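Model it.
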Amino acid sequence: MAHKFDPSRADRLLSPDRLRILPPDVLLDELAPRAGEVAADIGCGPGFLTLPLAERLAPDGWVWACDIAPEMLVRLRERLSAAECRNVAPVLSAESLVPLPDGGCDLLLLVHMLHELEAPEAFFSEMRRLLRSGGRGLAVDWSPEPSPFGPPLAVRVPPERASTWISAGGLAVEHVAPAGPHAYAIRFHKP
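Modeled.
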């Protein structure tokens, strides 16, 4: 049972509380982006991590900021303009059909969207298609325990299940670790 985030609540995705419990630098350190790489921020929302990721990839790197909600991309475009960020392209996508080239990404960032997936195996097969051989990704989602924020407990995805989905999509799980007080992160790569 998937639980989609309501785009009208996009401000919550940029709140000081989220910044405190999910520091961008900690997550990006785990992904280890390098200047010049090409990344896709899947489920980017209003760009909570898109802008910090773009900064790390500059000056020659690129971020495809993908979301299924047009409203989120409108908000992202406003933030990109205000920040004068020129190495990000917003992309409207479907959940398991992202209009990017095969093997066109060095990095994938998937944050707080695993619990929203309708067809996880198809989604991770699509993520495999997007990554170049040796490309890497980071999937972050809510821990399956009570917290003051986040989706209902009934829809949260335990890291073991998420790891199974990632592997079923043809990707190799490298590492599972806590990501702040209420989330976990799974680092993976395309063999």
